[in-house]
Structures are given as C-alpha cells and as structure tokens.
Amino acid sequence: MSGAALLKSSASELDLDRPNIEDYLPSGSSIQEPTAKLRLRDLLDISPTLTEAAGAIVDDSFTRCFKSNPPEPWNWNIYLFPLWCCGVVIRYLILFPARVLILTIGWIIFLSTFIPVNLLLKGHPKLRAKLERFLVELICSFFVASWTGVVKYHGPRPSIRPKQVFVANHTSMIDFIVLEQMTAFAVIMQKHPGWVGLLQSTILESIGCIWFNRTELKDREVVAKKLNDHVRGADNNPLLIFPEGTCVNNHYSVMFKKGAFELGCSVCPIAIKYNKIFVDAFWNSRKQSFTMHLLQLMTSWAVVCDVWYLEPQVLKPGETPIEFAERVRDIICARAGLKKVPWDGYLKHSRPSPKYRERKQQSFAESVLQLLDNK
Measured between alpha carbons, how far is 336 from 132 in angstroms, rounded to an integer? Predict the structure, then answer.
C-alpha cells in the first residue's frame, strides 16, 4: 500500500471515531429557525458537561485572586533544617516579644494622650482635629514597627484639599495602616465586629472615617451622601477608598466600583505592592481573623512594600464613571505589576443567583449569534 493510500485510510478511520454533531440536533421537520441559530442554541442546550467545564474554568480564574500561595519550603535537607530552626527561635522567642512590647508601649502613649485630647479640647475643634490626626498617624507607625515594616514611599505626600479622593488596590486591612502612618486619611470601610469594630466606632471616627455594611441595602444612599459631603469639605482629611471592595492577593486586581469615580472630583491613584520574600501580607478574611493575621505578621521577619502616589486623574469629556474607573485601574495595575481580571470582588461574599446567570448566558448567546449573522 502506498503512503498516500495509507494516510487516506488512517484519516477515514479517524473520521469514524469523530462524533457527528448533526446527530444531536433536532430532526429537519422541527427546524423553524436559521441553521446557524439553531445549531448554536441546541449545542448550548445539550452540552451540560461543557457548561460545567466552562464554569469550573471561570471559578478557577476568579478564586485564584483570593488564594494565598505559600512559598516553597526550603528546609528540606539536613543542612538547611538547623538554620530554619534557628530562624523559628529568633522570630518567636526574640522578635515577637520585642514587637509585643513595642506595640504595648505605643498603645500606652496613644491612649494616655488621645483620651485627654478627645475630652478636654471639645471647645477647640481645629486644634483637637490636628492632634487626633497626629496621634492616629503615631499609633499606625507603632503598628508598622511591630511588623518590622520596611515601607518605601514614592511621590509627593498627600495634602488636605477639597474635591479630591484617593483610591488604592486592596490586599489587607494593613493597607490602611501603611498609608495612615504617613497621612491621616478618612477611609470608607466595611464595619467589622470585635475589637476592630470598637476602634472604628471610637478612635477612627475622630478622623472622619465612614463605615458601611454590605448586608444593608439602605446603607448605599447614606454612604453616598456622606462621601459627597466629605470631599467638598475644605478642612476634612483626605478621603481614601479601596474600590475593589475586598482584599485581593496582590497578584491580581478585580473590578473597581464606580462610586469613587462619580463624585465629580479628581481621583488620586495609589499603588501598593508587597514583597512576599519575608511574609505574604494578603488577608483572607474567610479563613483567618484579623487578630491571627496580625500575629502572623508579628512572627514573620518583616513586612516589605512599596507605595506609589500617582498623578491625579480627572473625568475626560464623554467618559463614563465605569470607563474612568477602568482607566485608573490600568494605571495602578501597571505601576504595581498586577494582572487585571474582569470579576466583581463582591462575588467572593455572595454568588449570583441562577436567574442572573441565565440572563448572562442568554446575553452571551445573543452576542455570539449577532457576530455569526454579521459574518
């Protein structure tokens, strides 16, 4: 048998093994629509396995934004293991007690000063606000020192000016502490329970911070009004917003909410990038309390990061708030080396309903059909 005949025979055998898509489509008598439209719709209907596979791919692309990737273990042989043991002793028995002492001293100094200022200077609002800003920056500096924080700031330090808002990518609640030690920002943040919530409702409210609750729909209108009022105040602290709305693992960036970009003021991007060589600063709030997250940082070697204060941006003519948000996200991602993904970070807390997914699938199918019709 010749080579050509052999190839032809092999191709014929392969064709026999291939499934015939036409066998899965309705018979000719039931066809009421154009062939291209019928085939696409019926293929979507009769492919639950493919739909599940596509869903798994999407879920993997989404969940990787919220995964902490531990470094590869290096204490795998008899030569390195003793060094690792020495490191554990230093971190837990020397550095950790020293850091606890530093943080304790910081709280003693802060509380012994903040309480008198808050109670005795009510008749002097400007002086009181100035001292409270300084004290909040001071306690945040003690927090950073308790992690042996090595933070390098790039660009001009933010100043108090009306009609401006600062936005930053979000890796952990310590982002706020890292930024706050340089400038007393008023931040918009999810209301937390426990000791963090106590600090929010007492100390942080003194610098104009705004709290919200994701489960309360009516909070949106109240928060929107507070934001508009805050950015127009001449003496208010600079407003800081994390538009992703949730902590992402500092490798990716999820969609920015448009609220910060429809306030009618200039938007100042801030890019934060952590160096994972000493510790992973990502806080997975679903698996770890913030207290345990702080203990992890305090028992590590150091928290190392870079902060870039980038050029202020304004809404361009004809640009929508969503397009404005994406443009600012591009700037932050380019500076911090983050990968953009088209996911809403709120899906981390609540998955979409079946009706919502069905509408999205129908919209996608109609878009594909329109492309086929154009061709």
Answer: 31
User: Is 370 a member of any domain?
Assistant: no
Rounded average pLDDT per 10-residue block, the chain, 375 residues:
45 44 45 48 51 52 72 74 90 96 96 91 88 93 95 90 91 94 88 78 83 66 82 85 91 91 92 92 87 94 96 93 95 95 73 60 68 67
Domain-embedded: residue 242: yes
d(CA 319, CA 215): 31
Q: Is residue 238 part of a domain?
A: yes
Looking at the domain assignment, is residue 185 inside a domain?
yes
Domain that holds residue 284: 148-347
Sign of the four-CA dihedral 340, 254, 231, 113: negative
Which H, E and C letters describe 13-38, residue by residue? HHHHHCCCHHHHCCCHHHCCCCHHHH
Indicate the pTM of the whole model.
0.75
The tokens describing 89, both together, are: 């002793």
Total domain count for the chain?
1
Task: Round to whole Å and give the CA distance between 210 and 228.
Answer: 12
Beta-carbon contacts of 272 under 8 Å, excluding residues fewer than 6 positions away, are 168, 169, 171, 175, 178, 179, 250, 305, 306, 307, 308, 336
